[in-house]
């Protein structure tokens, strides 16, 4: 097909990223060879390795390391080196470090992602690490998803050489093609749980998926300046950091795409009235990005009405309504929230 035919196919299905489109071959048939190669890797494997396009990369890295080293708690670093658990990361360092922001807002990366996905990319989050994350197998899509789905990707950049000893990334090639399984597929209505969930309730399912399909993990043994783009639903994680005296400096930037709604499925039960919308700022220009649906901005009053406001107990838990719905609890003189957390959830008591 010619280019006009490819454009028409994209107009027929704009709510699917180009790299995951059923019309993939046609959409990239006339693309330049370098773009075709990257697109093919993402389409087939869910990842693509590139060299980070920054002429002053080495100096940026040294400046970032010097700046962020002071931000890490020395006790946590000592715990890590001693082999104990420690969460060593800085979330959204772009807010105070111009060099972190420069890497996240790299125009060549944004242009590349926009071509690959067929929509304008924008960075919304950074994570900086001095050591390996050792994260369990997971999909980013339960944390950051979009409507239409899959318009999210991550770009991980190595600030130094990565070996098997300092916690390389691992990923399961082709796992991005799995459906995006959310709470309803697990039979969980998290809005009724006594406390907020985390991804551990998904991990056995994810492991069973790769086992059932016989997919073997691959490690990304990067050189300094190598970057890995991965698709929203790719199953990936961090390998054990064997040499605890060695560093593993890196940066992750997460990107969404314009004309979407952005939310966290892990905290959402849309058909139970709870959607954890993301209210985000475009790192590149500092502008707030409105949630949109098919070209229309989603009203803020709807976003606010569906978002969780209850840090403990079920979302929007109303103790008086719970006691009215369960008069035996009220007659016993028990606190509504305490009863629900201790007994009511397991007994599937009505919330109202």
Could you characterize what this model shows?
InterPro entries: Phytyl_CoA_dOase-like (IPR008775). This is Phytanoyl-CoA dioxygenase. Its cofactor is Fe(2+). Pfam families: PhyH (PF05721). The chain has 352 residues and is an alpha+beta fold. The chain folds into 2 domains: 31-306, Jelly Rolls, CATH 2.60.120.620; 317-352, no CATH class. Helices cover 30% and strands 18% of the residues. The protein contains 12 helices and 16 strands. Strands 1-9-6-11-3-2 form a 6-stranded antiparallel β-sheet. It has a 4-stranded antiparallel β-sheet with strand order 4-10-7-8, with no helix packed on it. Strands 5-12 form a two-stranded antiparallel ribbon. β13 (280-281) and β14 form a beta hairpin. The radius of gyration is 22 Å and the shape is globular. The relative contact order is 0.15. The mean pLDDT is 91.
Task: Provide keyphrases for this structure.
single chain, 352 residues, alpha+beta, Jelly Rolls, 6-stranded antiparallel beta sheet, 16 strands, globular
What is this structure, in a nutshell?
This is Phytanoyl-CoA dioxygenase. With 352 residues, the chain is of the alpha+beta class.
What is the helix content? 25-40%
What's the main sheet like?
6 strands, antiparallel
Tally of contiguous helical segments:
12
Unreliable runs, pLDDT <50, ≥5 residues? none
Spatial extent as radius of gyration: 22 Å
The secondary structure category is: alpha+beta
């Amino acid at each position: 097909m010619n280019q006009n035919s490819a454009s028409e196919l994209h107009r027929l299905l704009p709510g699917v990223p180009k790299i995951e489109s059923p019309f993939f071959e046609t959409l990239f048939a006339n693309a330049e060879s370098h773009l075709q190669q990257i697109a093919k890797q993402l389409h087939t494997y869910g990842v693509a390795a590139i060299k980070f396009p920054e002429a002053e990369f080495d100096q940026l890295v040294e400046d970032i390391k010097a700046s962020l080293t002071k931000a890490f708690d020395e006790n946590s670093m000592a715990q890590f080196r001693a082999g104990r658990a420690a969460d060593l990361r800085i979330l959204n360092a772009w807010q105070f470090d111009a060099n972190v922001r420069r890497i996240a807002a790299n125009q060549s990366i944004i242009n590349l992602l926009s071509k690959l996905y067929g929509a304008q990319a924008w960075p919304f989050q950074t994570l900086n690490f001095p050591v390996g994350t050792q994260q369990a197998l997971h999909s980013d899509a339960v944390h950051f998803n979009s409507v239409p789905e899959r318009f999210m990707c991550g770009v991980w950049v190595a600030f130094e050489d990565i070996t098997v000893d300092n916690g390389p990334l691992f990923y399961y090639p082709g796992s991005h093609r799995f459906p995006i399984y959310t709470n309803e597929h697990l039979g969980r209505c998290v809005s009724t749980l006594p406390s907020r969930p985390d991804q551990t309730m998904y991990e056995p399912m994810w492991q069973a998926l790769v086992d059932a399909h016989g997919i073997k993990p691959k490690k990304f043994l990067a050189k300094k300046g190598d970057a890995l783009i991965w698709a929203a639903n790719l199953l990936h994680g961090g390998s054990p950091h064997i040499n605890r005296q060695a560093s593993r400096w890196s940066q992750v930037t997460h990107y969404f795409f314009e004309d979407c709604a952005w939310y966290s499925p892990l905290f959402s039960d849309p058909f139970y009235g709870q959607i954890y919308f993301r209210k985000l700022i475009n790192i590149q220009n500092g502008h707030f990005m409105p949630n949109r649906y098919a070209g229309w901005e989603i009203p803020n009053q709807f976003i606010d009405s569906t978002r969780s406001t209850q840090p403990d107990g079920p979302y929007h838990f109303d103790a008086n309504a719970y006691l009215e719905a369960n008069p035996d609890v009220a007659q016993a003189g028990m606190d509504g929230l305490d009863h629900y957390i201790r007994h009511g959830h397991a007994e599937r008591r009505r919330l109202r």
